User: Fold this.
Amino acid sequence: MRKTLLAASAALLLAAGPAAAQQKTIKIGFVSTFSGPVAVIGNNMRDSFELALDHLGRKMGGLPVEVIYEDDGFKPEVGKQKTDKLIESDKVDFLTGYIWSNVLLASVKSALDSKTFIISANAGPHQLAGEGCSPFFFSASWQNDQTPQAVGHYMNQKGVKTVFLIGPNYAAGKDMLAGVAATFKGKIVGEELTTWPAQLDFSAELAKAKAANPDAIFVFYPGRAGVQFLTQYAQAGLKDKIPLYTAFTIDELSLPLQKELALGVPGAQQWVNDLPNEANKRFVADFEKKYPGKKPSFYGAQSYDAAMLIASAVAATKGDLSNKTAVQKALEKADFKSVRGDFKFNNNHFPIQAFYLQDVVKDAKGDFVLKTIATIVKDNQDAYHGKCPMK
Amino acid sequence: MTLFIEQCLNGLQFGLLLFLLAAGLTLVFGIMDLVNLAHGSLYMIGAYFAATFAAWTGSFVFGAILALAATLLVGMVVEVVAMRRLYGRDHLDHVLGTFGLILFFDELVRLIWGPEGLSLPLPLWLNSPIEILPGVQYSAYKFSIIVVSLIVAIFLYVLVMRTRVGMLIRAGASNREMVGALGVDIKLLYTLVFGLGAALAGLAGLMQAPILTVQIGMGESILILAFVITVIGGIGSIRGALVAAILVGFIDTLGRAFFPDLLRLAFTKEVAATAAPALSSMLIYLLMAIILVVKPEGLFSAGGK
Assistant:
């Protein structure tokens, strides 16, 4: 009797073993900024990622999903530590998040060395787009140069002849200024890079821009610095004199503080809240329902897409993530409905996508909102994909 | 030339603002021998109060006045509740205690006002540029910061050099035990000095608020500069703080404004663009290092110990 019982339980155990292995969870590590003055961005990304999981029924390819959120504290070295921890002790299947290019650049090597798929939901430094592209790196956002290139095109259309560039002195800031320089046909009369993120008083730079008397000023200041820049630009009396063109400076998170200062200041973006596709309508409506009083932003839209992209690959491989090549191929297909409409990957795993002109208007309720004005470029590819050895 | 004048004004404005912050710090450090890392929190509190009161009253000026009074009160309460326990202890205890206060204030502000921060809009008459010299346009608000700070500097000078309270403050900076032994209520004096320092920090914070917006932790990076000024100017010396603050303000602003162009003459454009912001932010610390070597007690040392 006892022997039978033993045999039976052994059989049960054996039967349960493989079943338990199949019932694994998909582990995703999400590195973003959840503390300090720019935490509002990280929180918006997390909210959007959670919304995507709700839409997915909190399952990917039939498997439960576990997301581990880690705070990079706005610092590259902390971001790298957290990434290492997610890879080594949590053994995550995917890494995503990453607002800041310098944080991503510090963290990416650990991911690539350990062959962990890393999907940037915002940062797109050029170092990862050209010769440094990788089978394990994907971008659910853009390459840094792309958006300012679109602004450069738009300034050409507006007949701007001379421009003064201002941005922060870190990986993304340099990419942004290089992006404008690549497409802008007029003359760049001045270029200022400021200490990032410590410097928040731009009076010296604005005085120089004023003295150079250009047709336009281009600026890139993400997060809270964008509010400070617009305020000081108005206080210096430049608002009615020298028009401002922006990339990643005005968004739904900074607008509540920028208010009328942002009215009529154009910017380029690959996602705007009013894009007329079904996936986006659902995203925007459900976001406002789930988080009353909050608004979705482009940071969130990219995080939402990142979740959908990961889910599409998990579903395509039926949850078997051990075959890295199969996962890579599945990710490359980008078989999901993006909130920005068409979405396909280039050979370097950066998206080929449209960039829109957005402007700030007052809506019926008197709130300041962003609105699509026109499409600046369609099917835009980044400038570095030719140098990427992946085909 | 216009550009140079404008940049000098920017430097002066930044310097005077730093002076307000450093004056309180140097007073507390010099007289009470207390290292107060939480001075930046009072700067932040001043800005939050101003944004809140300005929204309530609908007036920037009223909001500022109320915020000033409220910060003074908060400073005195902090002194009575927390700082009194720290006098006579080791400097390490001061650092630990006041660092705890920073965390406390940051979390308190997060609980009361939320993590997003506030904006403090300026009235129209301050938000547009004015012509201060023929052909030189300058931000009316920045100009008013210069004027207000200068008035406060004069007020502090009169208070410290010409009044009985000021005499006690100076005496306290030179020899605390003797002042106490002569029957002066040193506890009350400390509370007053700490409150005054808090109000000055609050004034700096609320004046900076419309330029930089109001956010948690806004006082921490600027506090480093205030400490540098205290060291350069000499601990406990208001005059030293004024001179050092204006020096630091000028070096910081003019360094940022003209240093990149100088570098561009010597190096390639890329090198200059990358190195200039880093190097110009080092200039202040370079100055501090030189002062420490040449005159370790600071430019104007207050204590004739």
Q: What stands out?
A: The first strand of chain B starts at residue 129 and ends at 133.
